[in-house]
């Protein structure tokens, strides 16, 4: 009991973060964005691989001797790391993101988003500092453990920290609210990657590639932003509802429940595993393409992107460099579609319904994947780019829509914890998608298939994944009432969180006038300006694709 009382009275406790009268709910999304824009840099970490592969040699890599073996290369401090070894950091990010979200989701519901946000900041930024030490000492294991493991835990906590809170603040716009926050995770790399590139250029010397210094600067800057976001979190009082909001009657939409399912029960329901499969299959198809977007464009179109009737292998070094620059623009364009899709599709799901929105993802995606090989063989660059742009928008939209889908099916009381467990589907897809695309490509090339045609069957396999996802989504039904918590169980859960424990009690709506327009505007500017800068840089790169 003593520990409980201390937890309740602490500044970071959930009870201390309950909003008072007059709090403006539109201050919560920018707080969430402040955290997601920082942890979203995980998507842009590839910007460090090339410099780190020359951290010892500086101008060119100092290759490890063949006598060292794999373990020797990992532990060596006097020769450079291979990019393939550095890339394991990216894998660790998403394995530990999903694991941390699943393990600590239940704790988050009780501890509250403020405490989770602070722990996320300590882990993510502390992991970057530990990685800086790893670069300085040239110890790859420190980078893996710092950024990959500790940082990955920070990713998981930061990713799910605002979900439950936003859904409670926006019962009338669940998709819009989660879309606004999760959009930030997709946009983090657009800010962090070009910023890191400029910092490395600034810090680079004849003795250093500037990576460890960049890690330190990013860690300090991200810590300020993430702490501001975490301390800006507020949770609504029990039973709060926005002014004028009238919950729809249960009969209005059978797919939206007014009851609640406990996280320890939710994962035992068929609905959980169907939605797990829906997310996994949608993400597997999208992330596999995202991971190979640049080489895919170059190998499929080759010299045609430069106005030459030559295949990729027939190009000289200069032409390949020009083609790589165009492919970078294509990748940037896909990033914009990924971000735009998160807000477009998630907010659209408030009107379409979550099940229909996912049905559109699978049906439209299947058609587009089937069209891509034909567009590639015909040299139809516009159709090729359009198809992948829509596909990546639905990839991002799937991430942003799933929290609202979970709230519809399982209720809002423990949606953050349930979402955390569902994110293990992301970890699975992070391995499945790239492996499918990479190994199918290598298998076909090794059997004599031209590089320009090596992605055809891959597209059909990804289309098959979406077809499977369509049927999984089709099977989603409302949860059986026997899995839902009773009013007494919900009340006890709310008391454990520090709430009043009244089920269905309508707290007074908090008027927006208490938080002035200036405060709200400044909060949005704080996250909007960096995001606008990142978008402008990406647009500049994407413009090269159409020249």
The CATH architecture of the largest domain: Up-down Bundle
Number of discrete helical segments: 22
Backbone CA Rg: 24 Å
Number of strands: 0
Verbal overview:
The protein has 547 residues and is mainly α. It folds into 2 domains: 24-61 and 71-174 and 192-236, Growth Hormone, Chain: A (Up-down Bundle); 273-476, MFS general substrate transporter like domains (Growth Hormone, Chain: A), CATH 1.20.1250. 69% of the residues lie in helices and 0% in strands. The chain is built from 22 helices and no strands. Helix 2 (28-39) crosses helix 10 (174-203), helix 10 runs antiparallel to helix 11 and helix 14 packs across helix 15. The longest helix has 36 residues, at 317-352. It is globular, with a radius of gyration of 24 Å. The termini are far apart. The relative contact order is 0.15. Mean pLDDT is 86; it is low at 1-8, 500-508 and 510-515.
Which tags fit this structure?
547 residues; Growth Hormone, Chain: A; 69% helix; globular
Short note summarizing the structure:
This protein has 547 residues and is an all-alpha fold. Helix 6 (88-111) runs parallel beside helix 8, helix 7 (113-137) packs antiparallel against helix 11 (211-232) and helix 15 runs parallel beside helix 17. The chain is built from 22 helices and no strands.
Question: Would you spell out the secondary-structure blueprint of this structure?
Answer:
Elements (H helix, E strand, L loop, with lengths): L1 H8 L18 H12 L9 H4 L16 H7 L7 H4 L1 H24 L1 H25 L2 H21 L2 H7 L4 H30 L7 H22 L30 H4 L3 H22 L1 H9 L15 H36 L1 H24 L3 H30 L4 H8 L1 H23 L9 H19 L12 H11 L19 H27 L4
Helix pairs in contact: 2-10, 2-11, 2-22, 6-8, 6-18, 6-19, 7-8, 7-11, 9-10, 10-11, 10-15, 10-17, 10-22, 13-17, 13-19, 13-20, 14-15, 15-16, 15-17, 15-22, 16-17, 16-20, 17-18
């Amino acid at each position: 009991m003593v520990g409980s009382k201390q937890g309740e009275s602490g500044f970071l406790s959930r009870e201390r973060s309950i909003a008072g009268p007059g709090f403006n709910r539109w201050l919560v999304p920018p707080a969430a964005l402040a955290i997601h824009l920082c942890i979203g840099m995980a998507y842009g970490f590839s910007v460090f691989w090339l410099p780190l592969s020359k951290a010892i040699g500086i101008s060119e890599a100092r290759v490890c001797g063949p006598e060292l073996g794999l373990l020797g290369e990992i532990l060596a401090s006097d020769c450079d790391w291979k990019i393939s070894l550095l890339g394991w950091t990216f894998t660790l990010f998403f394995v530990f993101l999903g694991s941390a979200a699943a393990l600590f989701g239940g704790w988050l519901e009780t501890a509250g988003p403020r405490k989770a946000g602070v722990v996320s900041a300590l882990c993510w930024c502390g992991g970057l500092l530990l990685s800086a030490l790893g670069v300085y000492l040239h110890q790859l294991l420190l980078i893996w453990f710092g950024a990959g493991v500790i940082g990955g835990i920070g990713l998981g906590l930061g990713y799910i920290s605002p979900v439950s809170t936003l859904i409670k603040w926006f019962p009338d716009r669940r998709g819009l609210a989660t879309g606004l926050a999760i959009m930030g995770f997709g946009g983090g790399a657009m800010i962090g990657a070009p910023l890191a590139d400029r910092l490395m250029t600034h810090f680079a010397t004849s003795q250093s590639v500037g990576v460890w210094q960049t890690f330190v600067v990013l860690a300090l800057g991200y810590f300020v932003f993430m702490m501001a976001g975490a301390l800006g979190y507020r949770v609504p009082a029990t039973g709060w509802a926005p002014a004028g909001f009238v919950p729809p009657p249960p009969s209005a939409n059978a797919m939206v429940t007014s009851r609640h399912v406990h996280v320890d029960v939710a994962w035992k329901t068929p609905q959980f595993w169907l939605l797990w499969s829906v997310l996994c299959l949608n993400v597997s198809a999208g992330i596999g393409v995202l991971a190979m977007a640049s080489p895919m464009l170059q190998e499929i179109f080759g010299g045609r992107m430069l106005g030459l009737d030559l295949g990729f292998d027939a190009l000289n070094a200069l032409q390949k460099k020009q083609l790589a620059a165009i492919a970078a623009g294509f990748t940037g364009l896909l990033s914009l579609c990924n971000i735009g899709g998160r807000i477009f599709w998630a907010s659209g799901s408030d009107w379409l319904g979550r099940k229909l929105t996912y049905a559109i993802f699978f049906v439209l995606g299947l058609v587009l994947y089937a069209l891509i090989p034909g567009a590639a063989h015909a040299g139809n660059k516009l159709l090729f780019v359009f198809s992948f742009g829509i596909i990546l928008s639905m990839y991002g939209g799937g991430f942003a829509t799933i929290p609202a889908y979970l709230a519809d099916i399982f209720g809002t009381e423990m949606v953050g914890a349930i979402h955390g467990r569902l994110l293990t589907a992301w970890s699975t897809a992070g391995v499945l998608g790239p492996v499918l695309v990479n190994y199918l490509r290598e298998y076909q090339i090794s059997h004599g298939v031209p590089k320009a045609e090596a992605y055809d069957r891959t597209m059909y396999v990804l289309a098959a994944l979406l077809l499977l996802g369509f049927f999984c989504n089709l099977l989603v039904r409302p949860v059986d009432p026997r899995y839902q918590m009773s009013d007494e169980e919900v009340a006890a859960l709310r008391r454990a969180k520090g709430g009043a424990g009244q089920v269905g009690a309508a707290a007074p709506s908090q008027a927006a006038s208490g938080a002035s327009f200036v405060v709200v505007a400044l909060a949005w500017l704080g996250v909007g300006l960096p995001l606008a800068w990142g978008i402008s840089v990406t647009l500049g790169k994407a413009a090269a694709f159409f020249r």
